[in-house]
Design goal:
This protein is of the alpha+beta class. Helix content is 39%, strand content 26%.
Length: 168
């Protein structure tokens, strides 16, 4: 019999009361992924949020546009997430049910708790404050990632400017 992780240690459920955590845990679905299995595929639609509780995953992104139908693009590893940190991913899918912005691939066998959009809506119906806190925490996580992305874009633009400027 497995024990439920302490979800209060994950950013997605930051500052939740014991009652709020208990409510959320009722709607989380336990899932297992094998090494090399794709959990999220870039540009696919999805409506689930994931909390990694054991194992490691790679977050990758295709950084070159595939403008030729038969051209393979290589994905760039953006991050490695470790279950011991209880990281979440797939937040935009939960809120927008939109296109996934990166791939998430199991580096080893993984245990993941998933919150579907449908179950998120049930949480909101039971306790709007808990739903609000989830959305607020997602916003905080996404804002931090956007800040990091912005810094990286400036670095890439600077490198491109220097490379092109050096040629002229």
């Amino acid at each position: 019999m497995s024990t439920v992780p302490d979800f209060s240690k994950t950013l997605i459920f930051k500052d939740f009361s014991a009652e709020q955590l208990k409510l959320v845990e009722e709607y989380l679905e336990l899932n297992h992924y094998q090494k090399s299995e794709v959990i999220i595929e870039e540009n696919s639609k999805g409506s689930r949020l994931y909390v990694l509780t054991s194992g490691k995953v790679s977050v990758t992104k295709n950084l070159v546009m595939d403008i030729l139908d038969n051209h393979d693009t290589e994905a760039k590893r953006l991050a490695t997430l470790d279950g011991k940190d209880l990281p979440s991913f797939g937040e935009n899918g939960l809120i927008l049910n939109g296109l996934r912005t990166a791939n998430v691939i199991a580096n080893e066998d993984c245990t993941v708790y998933e919150l579907s959009g449908e179950n998120f809506n049930l949480i909101v119906e039971k306790d709007i404050k808990t739903g609000y806190q989830i959305v607020r925490n997602i916003s905080s996580i996404v804002c931090k990632r956007l800040e990091d992305t912005d810094k990286n874009v400036v670095k890439l633009a600077t490198a491109l400017f220097l490379a092109v400027g050096a040629r002229t």
